[in-house]
Amino acid sequence: MARSVSALLILLCLAVALFAAMADPKPEKPWKPEKPEKPEKPWKPEKPEKPEKPGKPWKPWKPWKPEKPEKPEKPEKPWKPWKPEKPRKVKCHDKKGSQCGGYEFQCPASCPKCYVDCDLCRPVCGCDKPGGVCQDPRFVGGDGITFYFHGKKDHDFCLLSDSDLHINAHFIGKHDPSRTRDFTWVQSVAILFGYHHLYIGAKKTATWDDTIDRLELSYDGESIDLPTNEGSVWRSSSTPSLSISRSSGTNSITVEAEEKFRIEASVVPITEQESRAHNYGMTGDDCLAHLELGFKFYSLTKDVHGVLGQTYREGYVSRVKMSSNMPIMGGFHQYRTSDLYTPDCSVSRFGRTVSGIAMVSQPADVICASGMKGRGIVCKK
């Protein structure tokens, strides 16, 4: 009985499954025609190869030629011996009735840039008189002793300081690594007196031409235009006692303040001959134009100081070593100033009252020999 029931259930299940399959048959996919094959590309003939370019025609072999020899360097120009400047002629331009006023004098060959001393009525060289400041600065003191003061390039130093007169100088130069000091020259000076200041300077120049004026002048900050004619005179409207005159057409002047000072100033270059002789190492961009100066003072006090000023003191004893080939005044730090127009060196006397200080009378004119080449000069009244 049980077996019959089991068989019946199995048959029932199979019947249900068969019925379900017949009731929900899966639809077949519709027929799609096959894609036609792509037709083959029609045959194209191959492009013919480009013919090769014909080569350059053969050139016959050139025979070997030796290289051209290098051109020999041009030989240096033979050294020409130095020719001294032609002595020039100068006149006395004193308008106060000098006996030689207007007369012409010829400078000696040893000093082509001389000037006329209108009191002595003869040409003199400012570099060899007391008050001379020339070359790598070579000073002739008020006592007649020659000495050198090198200072330092691109710095300012006090040459003279008194109660109502102060003179500073600006030094230019060349540095030589093999030496302990610079080669130096005075490029400009500033003269302070009262409430005024006068500037005298040499303009920088590469190539020197004595016919071109290289002097630069100003008074109380205003430029001075002095015609380049010998004897031309400029006078200050604010200080009638001050005058500047041309000693020659260019590069030489005389400055005078009545009863105070007289200055002879000239602009000169460093020549190639000087550079060779002293190993200055000059270059073509600067001939180091500088000033040569001759000072004369009329009313200094007993307390006057400065590199040059102290040598005008009564009883002054020089500290330079006269036995040396180049007697040098040291201690440049005490003469250094902060700038050209400031009287602030440590020995400054400018602005002090003169009460109780004796005045140095006008120094007598002296005649000095210059053949000692730096060891000192002998001066006679």
From TrEMBL:
<feature type="signal peptide">
    <location>
        <begin position="1"/>
        <end position="23"/>
    </location>
</feature>
<keyword id="KW-0732">Signal</keyword>
<feature type="compositionally biased region" description="Basic and acidic residues">
    <location>
        <begin position="25"/>
        <end position="55"/>
    </location>
</feature>
<dbReference type="Pfam" id="PF06830">
    <property type="entry name" value="Root_cap"/>
</dbReference>
<protein>
    <submittedName>
        <fullName>Uncharacterized protein</fullName>
    </submittedName>
</protein>
<dbReference type="InterPro" id="IPR009646">
    <property type="entry name" value="Root_cap"/>
</dbReference>
<feature type="region of interest" description="Disordered">
    <location>
        <begin position="24"/>
        <end position="91"/>
    </location>
</feature>
<feature type="compositionally biased region" description="Basic and acidic residues">
    <location>
        <begin position="64"/>
        <end position="87"/>
    </location>
</feature>
